Amino acid sequence: MSDTLPAAAPPRLRAARTAVAACFFINAVLYADLVPRLPEIKDRLDLTNASLGAALAALPLGALVSALASAALMRRFGSARVASFGLVALAAAVWGAAVAPSWWLLAGALFVAGALDAVVDVAQNAHGLRVQRAYDRSILNGFHGIWSIGAVTGGLIGSAAAGLGVPLGLHLGVVAGVFAVLALVTYRSMLPGPDQDEPAADAVPLGGSGALRAVLPALAALGVLAVCGAFVEDAGSSWSALYLRGEIGTGAATAGLGFVALSVAMTVGRLTGDRVVDRFGQRRVARVGGAVVAAGMGLALAVPSLPTTLVGFGLAGLGVATLVPAVYAAADDLPGLRHGVGLTLVNWLLRIGFLASPPLVGAIADASSLRVGLLLVVAAGLATVVFGRVLRATVSRN
Prior knowledge:
It contains 18 helices and no strands. It is mostly helical.
């Protein structure tokens, strides 16, 4: 089936767009619902901080192990089925983590959840890009903005359930059931048929050679951009509070505002980014965004105060908002690769970036200071300016 739908099918296309947005929302809600209740799981299983941390590390480990299988699964079952039914399995895995009676089963459930999350992430982005190609304009940033809203929603639901004393198994069981049903409903509205026309004879699968060598420089550049995006996002989640407390000397009540500033700005940037990308193009927006990241974090580090730090983290979030969606779109369009291969590889590299960023910044901070360690974010912004030239100038193919 061609990605270009006939003029008589806009309702189907709008329904598919809504279905993909729902997938992004569900994907974010499921794990975010568990996060506020991790202290209860720790207490129930009598875990130390180290043992809980080790169990949580199974989540990214599972993602790294499974992510490279995404392309093959999508070719076999289609991105719509992998995304929708993968979310059903993810809901069950998160519920399993909530009710796990031992550390081993908790780690195992989180490993499975991470593995499923990685596959679902690739599949929902792949189907979102298919819908975007049919629209012939940018819509992918909006999906990522919906994911951010879903993460906040899940955290609020989890916090409310914890505050009301709702039993863990009941809370996550109801959440899993409701959103699993919703995921199945979304499948009915996804675009039917194969994700792409039959691949060219020389298209190579994951692990192949030939055309893969030809696109390797572009793929490497996209991988660098993905890692840059990971470094900027991780700066907010892992280091902003420590920077505000240790380097600026703020109190506990305001230490979390750096993360809030980056997250809110990034969400706003994604929800409004499609219009900006359509107006100025992916390449220009990404490169200007990289400059904004470098300038924002440079301001926060050069002038250490609460206002400048919040502005700096906010600018970093705004600058990076459209980067990962643009990288996904470019990877999915790499010539000569079978469907999903480029997207799968870049998604895997993005996860490597999220895994590598905390220890790297931490090691530099221990050797010097956190201000010096966060210069890596400035470097990521500058690298985005340089490597952003590999992105397409426009989303439209007309």
